[in-house]
Write a structure and sequence with these properties.
Elements: H1 12-23, H2 29-48, E1 53-57, H3 61-75, E2 80-84, H4 91-99, E3 104-106, E4 115-119, E5 136-137, E6 157-158, H5 169-179, E7 182-186, E8 208-212, E9 230-234, E10 244-246, E11 266-270, H6 275-287, E12 292-296, E13 307-309, H7 313-316, E14 321-326, H8 334-344, E15 350-352, H9 354-357, H10 362-366, E16 372-374, H11 378-385, H12 392-403, E17 406-409, E18 415-417, E19 423-425, H13 438-451, H14 456-474, H15 480-492
């Protein structure tokens, strides 16, 4: 099992293309399925101990992976049972089922087990599970139960109208998942849309998801990601390449003997009607490692290391400014517009956040001749780029191209996109970040990275990582002031 940090992210279509490229070399679908099922079995065996395992198999190749895993687990001596939703529908899945010599229960009648493995539907699901019903076996009530049938007996499934014993797939999945000590999803929990991260149905929250061959968007995008639990990647021998990757731990420069405050980077932050927001951004820039931070505008109080200067064109003209942050608490009045226009004309690399995002349009941003990083939350993104039902990755990538800027599309599933198509997605953020001022902290942290002369995409990625790590260190019920202070511990951990 491989941690997913820095791993490529593939859509369902991209994963199929990667598999087809391997198949074109002479590797059969059955061989790929055997690799996947064996990898699943090895992972489950490590976690199951002596506990019984129940594997739920669907009609497609995800179910085929489940049959292979069951066979391999049995060969390892692990107690394992199989429950099927229906007969296999693909040739590879049929072959995998033929290799499983144990009994097969129906999903509707399956008894719970300490270890549950969901191999019903993985990548590529396009309809809700509620649209699927579990068939009942074509046998009389007097027949023996699943555990009493001879080894290898096959049930013939009936697709007759629902009987009193028939239950929805969602109901079965929740019942079995809630009763398990450990629940594991194969590739994705059943009911999730691979590319958009939508929950077509609501699965139980799994403890672990085993991504087959590559990380998928739904492992990271909400709401799907909340059902995946921990995510680990299984290598199935399919080479994968993508412009989209999981956000990695940054490698940041550290001061040396010849360093001074300006070589570490100078960040200027423009204050507005709500000066506390600019104060938070300034504190974050300092704690993230900037050597010199100046706040331009009306503000007072600690920290005393923060240089406070009245806003003026002369203050903006300082050629030592390595990054200029505008937007936190800026306001939307005439003064705010004038300060924004001055910032855009100052010629410094820019981080544009908050109110400033609602005073601009993409064409104006695209015309700038300096590096620009935009940090919108969902409402600001909609105001700047328009609303859309398209998935968050596509929206962020299109916006970055349109504005010729790095876009940090904030949220529980932050997506960072560059104009050249590169995308980085952060793993799940702390839910406690949903408090006022945390976005201002992020803009300051990114400002420190940009002032240190990191590439704009790397600056955004490093700031997002530090922000998320600081939140994890704080635990519950923190405020933005705590978060800014905690950036120091996050930076010190690198």
């Amino acid at each position: 099992m491989i941690r997913i940090e820095c791993q490529p992210i593939l859509t369902a279509a991209e994963m199929r293309a990667a598999e087809n490229a391997v198949i074109a070399t002479g590797v059969s679908v059955e061989t790929l399925m055997d690799r996947a099922g064996t990898a699943i079995a090895e992972a489950v065996r490590r976690l199951a101990g002596t506990n019984e395992v129940l594997i739920l198999c669907g009609p497609g190749n995800n179910g085929g992976d489940g049959y292979v895993a069951a066979r391999v687990l049995a060969e390892m001596g692990v107690p394992v049972r199989v429950a099927a939703l229906s007969e296999p529908k693909t040739d590879a899945a049929k072959s995998a089922r033929a290799g499983w010599l144990g009994p097969i229960e129906t999903l509707a009648e399956a008894k719970h087990a300490p270890i549950l493995v969901d191999a019903l539907f993985g990548s590529g699901l396009t309809r809700p599970l509620d649209a699927i019903t579990t068939p009942t076996p074509n046998r009389s009530p007097a027949d023996a139960g699943a555990q009493d049938r001879p080894l290898g007996e096959r049930l013939e499934f009936s697709w007759a109208p629902a009987s009193a014993r028939e239950r929805s797939v969602v109901e079965c999945l929740h019942s079995l998942g809630n009763a398990a000590l450990l629940s594991i999803a194969v590739d994705l929990p059943s009911g999730l849309a691979t590319d958009s991260g939508q929950a077509l149905s609501t699965p139980p929250v799994f403890d672990l998801t085993l991504a087959l061959g590559a990380v998928k968007p739904a492992h990271l995008l909400q709401p799907a990601a909340r059902y995946c639990g921990q995510i680990r990647l299984l290598d199935i021998g399919v080479p994968t390449v993508s412009q989209a990757e999981v956000l990695k731990t940054p490698s940041l420069p550290t001061p040396g003997p010849d360093s001074h405050k300006y070589t570490r980077g100078m960040v200027a932050i423009i204050a507005g009607t709500m000066s506390g927001a600019a104060d938070l951004a300034a504190l974050a820039a300092m704690r993230a490692g900037a050597g010199y931070v100046t706040l331009l505008g009306d503000s007072q109080g600690p920290p005393h290391a923060l240089v406070r200067t009245p806003f003026s064109d002369q203050a903006l003209a300082n050629d030592r400014i390595g990054a200029l942050v505008i937007g936190p608490g800026l306001g939307r009045d005439d003064t705010a517009r004038a300060r924004l226009e001055a910032a855009l004309n100052a010629g410094h690399p820019l981080i544009i956040d908050g109110d400033a995002l609602r005073l601009l349009d993409p064409d104006h941003i695209k015309a700038l001749k300096v590096p620009v990083i935009l940090t919108p939350h969902a409402g600001e993104f909609d105001a700047l780029f328009g609303k859309s039902d398209t998935d968050k990755i596509t929206r962020a990538r299109d916006a970055a191209t349109r504005a010729n800027a790095v876009v940090v599309f904030k949220g529980a599933d932050t997506v960072i996109a560059a104009p050249d198509g590169r995308v980085r997605i952060a793993q799940g953020a702390s839910d406690w970040l949903s408090t006022a001022g945390t976005g201002d902290v992020l803009s300051g942290a990114i400002g420190a990275m940009l002032a240190a002369k990191l590439d704009p995409l790397d600056s955004a990625c490093a700031g997002v990582w530090l922000h998320g790590d600081a939140a994890r260190r704080l635990g519950p019920a923190f405020i933005a002031d705590d978060l800014a202070e905690a950036l120091r511990s996050a930076r010190a951990s690198l």
